[in-house]
Amino acid sequence: ALPFFASVMFAACVGGFRPGLLATLLGALAIVNLPRFGAVGPILDGRLYAFAALFAVLGVCISLLCGSLH
Predict the structure, then answer these.
(1) 49/53: higher pLDDT
(2) Which residue in 45, 46, 44, 58 sits closest to 1, CA to CA?
(3) What is the pLDDT at residue 36?
């Protein structure tokens, strides 16, 4: 998960608020969907969705902070 936070921070610091939000969206989708590759059935783990939601909230905060410096 740390590379996803680093990508959000890099995108927000270099590009501003909107690229940071895009990196947050793509990271949250990757967190939810990557464990499904190779799985036989659906993964309905609440912790996975909770972590994706926490990642999204922190990603928006990082984007706001870095975007305000841009």
Answers:
(1) 53
(2) 58
(3) 63
Query: Using an 8 Å Cβ cutoff, are 12 and 63 in contact?
Result: yes
- Residue 40's pLDDT band, with cuts at 50, 70 and 90, is low
What is the C-alpha end-to-end distance of the chain, expressed in Å?
Answer: 25
d(CA 38, CA 60): 30
CB atoms within 10 A of CB 37: 6
User: Count of CB atoms within 10 A of residue 63's CB?
Assistant: 25
The position carrying tokens 């939810």 is 32
Residue 31 token pair: 């967190």
